[in-house]
Amino acid sequence: MRRKKDFKFYALGDGTLGPLLIAASLAATYIGPGLSIGLSGQSFSVGWWFPLAACAYLFQFFLIAYLIGPKIKERYGDVSTLGDVLCGSACHPGKAYLLTTATFTFLIMVGVAGIMTLISGTLISTIFGIDRNLGGVLATILVATYTTFGGLKASVYANLWQLLITSLVVVVVFILGETSSGEISNETADGTNAASPLVVLGVVVSFILGDFLQPPFFQRLAATKTARALKKAYTWCGMYMFSWFILMGAIGVSARDKIPHDTDSDAVLFAYAEYAVGPGFSFLILITLYLIVMSGHDAIINASASTATNDIIGRIAPSLPKRSIMILMTVVVAFLGIVLAQYFDSVMHGILFLSSLWAPAVAVPLILGIYRNEETHLPAMMALIFGSTASLITTFTADEMPAIAVGVLVSAGVFLLTSLICSRQHKENLQ
Predict the structure, then answer these.
(1) Which helix (H) or strand (E) is 189 found in, with range?
(2) How far apart are the C-alpha atoms of 91 and 375, rounded to whole Å?
(3) pLDDT score of 20 more than 80
(4) How far is 115 from 337, CA to CA, in rounded Å?
């Protein structure tokens, strides 16, 4: 991709991204390691209920395509990042709230970048026989380089090819695996019974709100030119994702009869693929798995750098050149991801933990604020603080209680209560 000089090119491309490209990029970004390596691993461990719970994502797609997305385009018009909505005069005009939310968002995205670096390093290490940490560094440098030079447009075109290749390879692997000896396991009932209703509830809420309009997905929403194009992109993405959830669930459940039961959850997809095609082709499978991870890694790095450039540094020091800051922050995000990769031990567990913080802190006040006519920066700030705190406390004190569900309820309740108090106060001041 040719380099452009303006920030908007890095954040949204050059205006030539149609709904099909956006849909492919969305699907590739959503899949990432969590809904491929992680989803197949969880299906292997607990059965069909987990991939079926993942279908709750379809409700998220519906909300964005038909309710939230068109409302954002109607109310805010031409936006580049989530901060352009959070500081809009019609919703959250408070600078303190913007900086707090932008910083929180940036930290969550850096955490996701750490997960991407972890699994990238593991795959590169397995492919080339080098140290895992060195593999993570090399993989991150590769992704950060083309993201820096090409911005969102480079990421979207890379996502398209990554999606096509990985889809073809995984389907072929599944067909070969199922035509080999062995049958689909009958243990799915045990896996379903092993999950309490509260655990299932937590997973469902995580899939609906856990990454709701996180920066990589918001960027693609903003890159669509019209509400009609947005609906097409999310509808096509939803159709693909539903097929992907069923495929990953089938691979994970079927793998119970084909690979050792003590296989690590993050290694299930590769172990099944090796069973299907034989060890002689395992190199190609590892490359395919790395393409899956790369499709999310580049999106996270670009979105994190855009958030820091536009919503944090851009608000504090608007005179600084955004293009230079964007390049610098891309390097910073890549470095922080490498550092944080040392602190995660499981892809899905790490993603679910970060989702339990994102949903109450940002997703809930964002959704509620968009549909209110008055300023809501104070209610949103209170919802962020109390919602994320409640989720964090629940995570470390209650094993069965779904932290994300508790956080969402607290966040929504605090937002509505504070909005009611502010509305009454405003009326009294007018009188």
Answers:
(1) helix 188-193
(2) 5
(3) yes
(4) 8
HSE toward the beta carbon, residue 410, CA cutoff 13 A: 24
Burial 308-342 (b: 16+ CB within 10 A, else e): bbbbbbbeeeeeeebbebbbbbbebbbbbbbebbe
Closest CA to 207 of 95, 348, 305, 411: 348
How confident is the model over 228-270, as pLDDT tens digits? 899 999 999 999 999 999 999 999 998 988 888 888 887 888 8
The angle formed by the CA atoms of residues 261, 347 and 393, to the nearest 5 degrees, is 110
> Do 237 and 21 form a contact (C-beta atoms < 8 A)?
no
Which secondary structure element, helix H or strand E, spans residue 43, and what is its range? helix 39-46
Question: Which of the 8 DSSP states describes residue 141?
Answer: H
CA distance 385 to 407: 10
- Measure CA of the first residue to CA of the last residue in the chain; give whole Å: 59
Tokens of 217: 């997905």
Q: Are 208 and 59 in contact (CB under 8 A)?
A: yes
- The helix/strand count (H/E) of the chain reads as 21, 0
What dihedral do alpha carbons 236, 242, 245, 247 form, nearest 10°? -90
Q: How far apart are CA 282 and CA 286, in angstroms?
A: 6
DSSP letter (8 states) at residue 294: H
Residue in the structure block whose two tokens are 């996701």: 112
**Residue 119, amino acid:** I
The residue count for the chain: 431
Nearest to 89 by CA among 106, 77, 80, 101: 77
pTM to 2 decimals? 0.80
Task: Find where tokens 């990769």 sit.
Answer: 341
Tokens 């964007």 belong to residue: 326
Q: Which residues are CB-contacts of 211 (< 8 A; sequence separation ≥ 6)?
A: 217, 355, 358
Report d(CA 351, CA 374) in Å as an integer. Answer: 34
Query: The tokens 């050059």 sit on which residue?
Result: 14
Where would I find the H helices in 225-281?
227-254, 268-277
pLDDT tens-digit readout, 44-82:
988 899 899 999 999 999 999 998 888 888 877 777 777
Please tell me what DSSP assigns to residue 3.
Answer: -
